[in-house]
Amino acid sequence: METAVQRLGRAGRTWRVAAVLAFAVLFCAGSLVGDDDWWPFGPWRMFSTSQAATGSVWSTEIEVQTADARGQWVPAPLTPENVGLNRAEIEGRIPQIEADPSRLGTLARSHAALRPRSAQWTALRVVRRLIVVVDRKPTGEVRTEVLAHWEAP
């Protein structure tokens, strides 16, 4: 038994061609001038660009002080289990945190709520480490820059 073939009408072909052309224009424009905000029509910068062979690679971290640590800065993981947010969520808010370091108090309060048995954080800072690279190999030189600092009242 043969099934009859149905052909698209003029209207069906027209809107499909229009949709394909619109998506092609969006993808081309996104590739040429788009950025992360254009996703899915623009490239994600982290996948569409590369670092120079010589320069620096940066890593954002938080360091904390507790009453137990007696003034020592200790690295703390930027994880949902530890502060309620991912590293990317903190990195995306660096300009706001630099403008208002009191926002870091939210991380300390989140940590206290998530880890009630851990020592309370009395101070917190966001640190950017620049790892110097020559010909894609780390040189061992690390430059540390404090971006924002908060202390408990």
From TrEMBL:
This protein's name: Uncharacterized protein
From which organism does this entry originate?
A: Pedococcus badiiscoriae
